[in-house]
Amino acid sequence: MSISIFDLPHILEQIGSHLSRKDISSCSLVCFHWNRVFEPLCWRYFELGNKIDCSRLLEQPRSLEIFRERAPTIQSLTVHNSTNLGQLVEFLQKTPGIFSKKLVRLVIESKDFPGPSAAFDVMIKLLSITQDHLLHLEANIHGIPQMSQIFDGQLETSFRSLESLKTIVLKGQYEIVGPSLAALLRHCPVSVESLIIDYPMREVYEPVSRWNIIATAPALGNMLTDDERLTLFWQDALPTNIRTLQLPRSIRKNEQVALIPFLRYRCPKLTTWEPVSTVRPISGSQLAEAINLSCPNLENLVFDGLSIERVGGGFDGGMDMEDFLRSCSSLERLETTYSEPNNFSTGQGATGTMWIRDKPLSTRQSLTLTSALTSTPTSTPTSTPTWVWACRTTLTHLDATFYMYRNVSDKGRFRKQIEQTYRKLGQLEALVELRLGCCCRCYGPKLADCQHYLYSAENGAAEILQGRDRQKQEQQQQQQPEQERGEGQEGDDDEVILDMSLETGLGHLAGLKRMRFLSIGRIQGHKIGYAELEWMRRNWP
């Protein structure tokens, strides 16, 4: 194919499409002819408004002509509030095709908008203009207005037409309510792969019966229960392509109406949920169940600032992290990040609790555990043991807290439960980082100042020794007769909840051949001495 001199502007335009804005501006200053080629490319990133009177653009014919010529070159459009912005938006609506398919990114900055409703209205109108080719939507608006049937209808109509949209980022400082969040999740376009909604949630639960966005027949309006209304709201919700998810913090009290239905109906391809804000303990098991049944590809589950106090203080109401380990077969990371760096030196802590209860082992569990204890390494089980977690071949990072039931009726059975927990840890073939802690979750420098249990750390927490009071007691016991010392040791054993000795603890972790980081932060009953440290050095070089 021959190329003539007349193809040079087209070639320069193709070259300019891969240059930065600074380089394009430099090229446009070379000569008049280069300016005609490169200056339109400077409009790839165009800001509309930004304290400029938009009426000048509409009233001056030359400015309007230039805008019509170069609008098709715009790839990213940023909209600020300005004088007469509404007139310009209406002009764009009345001029179909003014933007080409090159426009793939829309950014709305609402710092100067009078309120959430005004910014939301501008966003809806602009979406109707760019719906055919928009890939990325980012709206930094103060908040989402209180949802009504009018707003809900506009949102549904606009989002339904965005067939190519890949990412949605909605963020702001004002609190949003449960119905607004539910509407956003319900009408999210099917094509979206990344959804980020970064708003604080209002800590008030609004019953579904008060939602004015659920249209029901007048004859049935007062006869439907909240569950029936919620089912009516989420019916016909289609699955999306969402793989990365971030939802508002403090979503508590709205999990049942927004979060759990969204996971069940719309997130079959979810792989990363980070960060996960605190949820109520009563919803923990239901959340794990929804992930297990509807999100089989979930790999990264990272909680944000989750504390024992927020999770729940009782075994009947506490959220058990083992539910996720037991259910999610593709899970790779189960961690927590903290926004306050003073809490933990590493910036990480325990995600929550794995509850160890004093409950009878099932017959199948007892047989499996007994056969595992007596079998040789060459033996092959006929079926997958029930005490092995579903993510045993995928989990690489685990950050969790053990919490034990104190009123133990059968100590022998309870120790089997403890040993079974360590066996589950030992089956994590891909584990690289393991962080274990107790309720106070003291790590790093804070470990030495922990008053939760009477232990102290020496040599940078490399070896956890018993506290001074306990050391004195042991010295006194060594001076007593053999019989009395035995009785004293039996009393100490009663306080050992999670023994990390080779016989019951670390010895079951020999299968963690890939582990490179181990953090043990103050678990009551830890017995780690030189024998255990030597075993670690030999097995985990």
From TrEMBL:
Region (Disordered): 466-492
Top-level taxon in the UniProt lineage: Eukaryota
Domain F-box: 10-45
Membrane spanning residue stretches: none
InterPro entries: F-box-like_dom_sf, F-box_dom, LRR_dom_sf
Name the record gives this protein: F-box domain-containing protein
